[in-house]
Amino acid sequence: MTTRTCFPTRSSSYVQVHALLLEAASEVKLEPCVCSKRSATPTKLDKMLEKELRLCERSCSLREEILGAEVPEISHLSREILDTAFAAHDVLMEKETFRSLSSYFCSITPVLEGMRREIKDSLATQQALESLQRDIGKAKSFVNLYKKKSRFYQLMHCRNIVKTAQDITRDVGNSLALVSLANTEVSVDIRNNVEKLKDQMIHVEYQASQQKLEIVEKIEMGIKEHKTDQAFVNDLIRQIACALGVAVEDSSEMKLILDDFRREKEEAAEKKEREEEAFMEQIIALLSRCTPEVIREEYRVLRSTGSSTEELPPFDTFLCPLSKGVMEDPVSVVTGQTYERARIQEWFACGNNTDPITKQILPVLDLKPNHKLRECIEEWADRNHCSQICNARKKLESGEGALIEQALHDLLELWHRSYKIRHWIAEEQLVALLLELLRSGDKGIRCNILSVLQTIISDGDDNKRQLVDAGGVGVVVHCLARNIVVSKLAVALLVELLQSSSGFMPSVAPLVLERLSQEGESIMLLVTLSQNREDMEAAHNAELVLRKLCNKDENLVEMAKANWFTPLMERLCHGSDDSKLKMATALGDLELTQLSMETLGDKGAIQTLAEMVAGKLEFKVAALRALQNLTSCRANKKRLVEAGAVPLVLDHLFSVRFAVNVREPAAAIFEKLVLTDGTTFLVDANGDALDSGKVLNDLLALQDSLSSASTVRKHVLSSLQGLVSSPLDSEAKKTFKEAHGIAILLPLLERREPEVRDVAVEVLCCLASEHAHEISSFIMEKKLAALLVRLLNNERQGDVAAAAAGILACLPQEDTSLTKELVEENAVSALIHLVSHGNVRLKESAIGALLRFTLPSDIELQRKLVDLGIFTALKGLIYSGTQVSKVRAAIALRNFSASTMKLSTPPKLHRCCCFLVGKASVVCRVHGGQCGEKTTFCLVEAEVVPDLVLLVRNRETDSAGAAVDALSTLVLENENLEKGARFLHDEKAVGPILDLVSHGTEPSKEKSLDLLRKVFKVKKLAGHYADKARILLVDQATHGSEAIGKQATRVLASLENFESSSVY
Predict the structure, then answer these.
(1) Strand pairing class (330-332; 34-35)
(2) Which DSSP category does 121 fall into?
(3) Per the database record, which ranges form the U-box domain (predicted)?
(4) Which of these ranges, 228-237, 685-694, 774-783, has the smallest mean pLDDT?
(5) Contact between residue 716 and residue 762 where contact means Cβ atoms under 8 Å apart
């Protein structure tokens, strides 16, 4: 045979092909391969193999284009190799095995192309190429066969796949080496490459994954031992699903996989592949014999053929000779005797080698399963179990407590005897019956029913679905509200309901979660139970259920309403944008306690929301509304400052680029920051104070620019109230004045919207002391006295009434026109009513407003107040009012007492029989005439002097000085000095007044010294108090202020002028 010319003269095309082949050969560096793991996603190796396949295909096509068909055997063989490599790369199961095979085939192509230049067309070459082509053909058939098969089929044949692939790889390696050996002229480099590749291929070891091998072995064992245990089958199905990359919960996908396997079994039957068909039929029977449909049909047959509900005793052959109990796994020894497997194994483990019954020596200790006897025992047990279930139903329907308890006990025992029971119970509809008993049953059996239900639904999805369909979720939720024993069992039942499904039944968990979401009380009850520290297991289970319910944002909101904020905060901080928006919106709508606000603040809500304010518009609105809801808590105000959000809030409030839906919550937040705390929180993130004057100016400008219907106005006014009620610095006050703030606020008194007008009243109350004349003039000009009186009479809004009274208390008392207007509007009655029945703030403001009506210049107005019972109200204030109220009460008493001397009349003379006898009537001890509470406003007759003395004893308060002032009206130098002084002595008032000289406030000391000066003009009283007074006066003259020292010196000098003293 002549030598065939393999290659033409080298050209640029040849160089290109040669470079491509060298590149392909250089990139394939395989080592002996052991494949044991499966990857569900493309790996780096997958991508490299794909690149190699494309590269080899391109090089071969280019080679054929250049060389034509000079060596058709090699060209055709290269194409076959590439086709096989491509096909192997796409097989779905045993990917490692097939892709390793594909990689080796990719390595062969450049090696063959390298030999093409140097091989000769000899007989040995032709035989070697034919051998290689046969092996490649086998590989191609092998790959194409399994490429068409389903994943489950490939799983069942994984051992055969690995063995065949390994044999093919080794055969191809040997055949490739023969091609090289048949041509001695092949270069050393090419021969070395061939030898290296052949060495790798003949030593290759493929292995199926341990997971797949375990599944195959388990299936073979189940077929061999006639396994009918559903737990075994369910576990097997879970393993198969995992190996095939299918979700266990996706029952529809598993059904499709088994349907494909059934079709492949039918194809095997058509092809007369009897052994293959039989094996596949056994697999299908194993996986199908324990399906719920089959088991429930078996129960229906048993029930329809059963003539009695009495249990059948076991036959003797069913009993193990060793244990005397019914056998579950009967096995026979070589003598033919049958025993329970576990007991005979124990016998052998003790060193025995004889048959326990016949005593024969056993040549081998092999055990053979007695399948027929086992089936008979199972049939007997099934009939008895069917009877027991029917009997249990009758007992449950009887309504008798003892029978119900017995039925529950029987069901629990039955459950553990056979895997079929759960499906038979489902067929008997016992779950619905148990739920009805749980609804209406007494407390004694409620716990037992919950325990039985939990057992029945465990690993039984059909019973779970029955429970859900019968409204069982709602019944169980109601049990959560009972005592801890019942609620613990109820939540454990819910946990069981939410366990993943097994086998072919779809999971009921999504439906359970939906029903729980629809039950109004479920989340609240679960949250309460999760916080139970007395039973940690119940609390843990409750939290497990709650975590499952976190699948819906709406449920997180309900959890937050029940004061469990952790899931909501997790979603707010780390959820999607949509979830964050929902959570922020929910925070804006929740009704929160102070503790809840602090909890949310601790979890980082303020910082997160502050960051959201800087985002898109919808995030701004939601975050600002949430912050509005959270900043009622002082701790959260601090967190808002720490987050540097106060300037941000002000920017959103004052900037005209934002609409009302942004400015309103910003205004509400600012209101909460300043209303009770003034300028405390007007600081930036660094702790530097913001310019309160500028803020005040911006608020006034905003207030002046707002439309009449703006919802922002009330918050702005309240913010102004907070600022002006706090001590403003001089610059802020100057800003307020320059901005004509009072002129902006006064017109709001005329607004018809109560919410705006009322807040304006409260703001003006804070400003009234500094702007009294302006406010008074506006009230008179606009005739608003009637409005203020209406506000005084509005007891439902106590704060507004107190503010109105507070304004009146600050207005000039000398404005008689205003006083007259108020009297005509019946303000006096309203104010006295507030002093008598209002709260602390109302009383304080009302008595301040009443002072203008107590002036001595208008005795008739004083009389009107006395007739309305003002003395009683004043006494009440002295005992229980605030310090301000006590001061004002004492001032009012002083005003009334100032009129007494003018109103007091001389005593009348009475005739006795025929003689004119001057008999004096009872006269006032102080005023020397006829006095009365209502006629002369006498403090003595009104019995308020002891109350004033009580005030004097409060030495370090302003009320003590006011009381001294009132008592001073009883000691008038030109009229009743001695009587008044003696009266104060008798009422034990002088001693407290002396103490006030030493320990009182500066104004109190001045008033006390002035009164003592008058008292000590009575010689006997001066002598009586001289010793004590001298010490106190010397001390004040020496150590007191300049004014007090001078005054004390004058009083001391008057004492020294007395020649002697006597005891009174």
Answers:
(1) unpaired
(2) -
(3) 313-387
(4) 228-237
(5) no
Which residue, chain included where needed, has tokens 């790996």? 43
Q: Which two tokens stand for residue 856?
A: 């001595």
In which region does residue 503 sit, left (phi positive, over 0), alpha (psi from -120 to 50) or beta (all else)? left
CA–CA separation, 523 vs 565, rounded Å? 12
What integer pLDDT is reported at residue 508 of this predicted model? 85
CA distances from 249 to 234, 510, 814 (A): 12, 11, 89
Single-letter residue type at 293: E
Q: What percent of the chain clears pLDDT 90, i.e. is strictly above it?
A: 35
Exposure pattern of 40-78 as b/e (b: 16+ CB <10 Å)?
eeeeeeeeebbebbebbbebbebbbeebeeebebbbebb
| Cβ(793)–Cβ(837) below 8 Å | no
Whole-number Å distance between alpha carbons of 12 and 20:
12
Round the average pLDDT of the chain to a whole number and report it: 82
C-alpha distances (whole Å) from 243 to each of 256, 553, 788 are 15, 34, 84
CB contact at 8 A, 113 and 173: no
Give all strands of the β-sheet with 330-332 in edge-to-edge order: 338-340, 330-332, 368-369
Coil, strand or helix at 403: helix
CB-CB neighbours of 309 under 10 Å = 14
SS3 content of the chain, % helix, strand, coil (to 5): 70, 0, 30
49: confidence class by pLDDT, cuts 50, 70, 90:
very low
Give the separation between CA 778 and CA 761, rounded to whole angstroms: 13
d(CA 674, CA 1015): 51
- The residues near 154 (Cβ < 8 Å, ≥ 6 apart) are 91, 92, 93, 94, 146, 161
In eight-state DSSP terms, residue 34 is E
Q: How high is the pLDDT of residue 710?
A: 67
> From CA 715, how far away is CA 665, in angstroms rounded?
9
Q: What one-character-per-residue DSSP string does 323-388 give? A: T-SB-SSEEE-TTS-EEEHHHHHHHHHTT--B-TTT-PBPS----EE-HHHHHHHHHHHHHHHHHH
| Ranges 587-601, 666-680, 694-708, 931-945: which has the least confidence | 694-708
293 exposed, middle or buried (CB, 10 Å; 0-12, 13-18, 19+)?
exposed
pLDDT band at 600 (very low <50, low <70, confident <90, very high): very high
Look at residues 823, 817, 876 and name the one whose alpha carbon lies nearest to residue 849: 823
Q: Residue 394 burial by CB count (10 A; 0-12/13-18/19+): exposed, middle or buried?
A: exposed
Residue type, 159: R
Burial class (CB in 10 A: 0-12, 13-18, 19+), 631: buried
Q: Give how far Cα 267 sits from Cα of 156, 161, 277, 379, Å.
A: 16, 19, 9, 35
What is the DSSP pairing of strand 368-369 with strand 330-332?
A: antiparallel
Q: Are 656 and 696 in contact (CB under 8 A)?
A: no
Site of tokens 């002697």: 1060
d(CA 999, CA 954): 10
d(CA 394, CA 397): 5
Q: Count of CB atoms within 10 A of residue 1063's CB? A: 6
Place of tokens 């690993």: 459
The model's pLDDT over 850-867, given as tens digits with 9 standing for 90+, comes to 999 999 999 999 999 999
Is residue 645 within 8 Å of residue 615, measured between CB atoms?
no
What pairs with residue 326 in β-bridges? 319
Q: Provide the pLDDT for residue 26.
A: 42
Instruction: For Cα atoms 505, 510, 515, give the angle at the middle one, nearest 5 degrees.
Output: 120
Cβ atoms of 395 and 407 within 8 Å: the answer is yes
Q: What tokens were used for 821?
A: 């207007």
Selection from 430, 529, 516, 519 nearest residue 486 by Cα? 529
CA atoms of 1064 and 1059, how far apart (whole Å): 16
Say what the pLDDT of residue 231 is: 66
Position 680, amino acid: T
- Is-contact 832 850, C-beta < 8 A? yes
